[in-house]
Write a structure and sequence with these properties.
56 residues; elongated; alpha+beta
Length: 56
């Protein structure tokens, strides 16, 4: 059995910030090794995407 964990940061948060978010710190504590039955995916906030200019 493989455990899959998905980490999603909030709107403007990304791992490039000076102070990492709690989600990014938590993701760093997990093992990402399919051979050991654990994988994860990290997704930065939608506001960090270059295609989003910030105006609605």
């Amino acid at each position: 059995m493989t455990r899959i964990t998905i980490f999603c940061d909030e709107t403007w948060n990304s791992p490039d910030l000076d102070e990492p978010t709690g989600i990014h710190k938590l993701q760093g504590a997990f093992l990402n090794d399919p051979s050991k039955g654990q994988v994860y995916a990290y997704f930065a906030g939608i506001g960090t995407d270059d295609r989003f200019d910030g105006s609605l």
